[in-house]
Amino acid sequence: MKRKVCVFTGTRAEYGILHWLMKGIQNELDLELQLIVSGTHLSPEFGLTYKEIEKDGFTIDKKVEMILSADTPSAISKSTGLGMIGFADAYNDLKPDVVVLLGDRYELIAASLSALYCSIPIAHIAGGESTIGAFDEAIRHSITKMAWWHFTSTEVYKNRVIQMGENPKRVYAVGALNIDNVVKTPLLNKSELEKKIGFKFGKRNLLVTFHPVTMENNTAEKHFIELLNALKTLNHTRFIFTHPNSDTDGRVIRDLIESFTENNNDISISFQSMGRVNYLSSLQFIDGVVGNSSSGLTEAPSFKIGTINIGDRQKGRLKAKSIIDCEPTTDSIKNAIETLYSEDFQRMLLTVVNPMGEGDATEKIMAIIKNDSIPKELKKEFYDL
Fold first, then answer.
1. Structural domain 190-349, CATH architecture
2. Could you report the per-residue pLDDT of 226-243, keeping only the tens digit for each?
3. CATH 3.40.109.10 fits 3-175+360-371, yes or no
4. How many helices and strands in the chain, by DSSP H and E?
5. What's the CA gap between 145 and 130, in Å, rounded?
6. Distance separating alpha carbons of residues 133 and 309, to the nearest angstrom
7. Tens digits of per-residue pLDDT, 253-295?
């Protein structure tokens, strides 16, 4: 009998990372892929990105509606509660043998709690990481305590998971799935990409992806205005903006992006969702990623480009030498951009090594999911160091 492996995705970015693992499960004769889609994938405000998943050849087994039309703390809390109800029904119908969860967003706390209560073992990807500026930090570590298998991006993160009392026999440092995405995805050339996204690359090009720092109170608007003020001082530079995820105060950033691109449509463009292939393809032709997204720390170094990492959202993560940290102020961001374009920094980029792996995480995860025994009971003893 095939082992039923249920993968959950709630955002465009998460799906992009999971894509090749989903393909591997789908093509494995001894495994049956079950797919639950929720979160912003089902929201018109975020581009109904579930259609991209279906276009890629995946069958969606269950859609869990959980996103309320608001970005307040109350709405996020209520969305999490709605998610638990939906996941309980989905798991009851699908009866998976394993649930695969990646990352640390609030949609995942609902998915993991429901799996725990349904006694379904969780395979958690990307545990042990640290993002001090976001409440993802607490969610990530909570999922670790609910998960049975742990697939971390580095040895450092593996040791953190063990430090939280998890059995080392079920903790594997496999590298980041993000790098599999970079290595395995056929990318568009410049002319193909320009035609597809309706954007002409210029002499200098920056990709801007900025999200609210959810552990700070009402800083999203102020910090993003500081960023825009820095960008306005640049000459001969074109900008690609991606919208933020469904987080507290995310709409404030989206409104500011739309205002900027409307007033500067000759040099800028924005996307609710660029799509996995378009986003990765664009990293070939830009000078750097600007903002506070994890993609600037994971995928960007593999393209030998710099990342200007603003503020505390990603504080605590391992970083390649291509990452330039700066404060969320106009002057600090301007200085970081000057560093990015300096001759010394550009020369250094040629030898940058991405600490997140070599692009073979899919095969390593697949081997464990396929061959390890499914526990009859999810009783875990705390592993003392």
1. 3-Layer(aba) Sandwich (3.40)
2. 999 999 999 999 999 999
3. no
4. 15, 13
5. 15
6. 12
7. 999 999 999 999 999 999 988 988 999 999 999 999 999 999 9
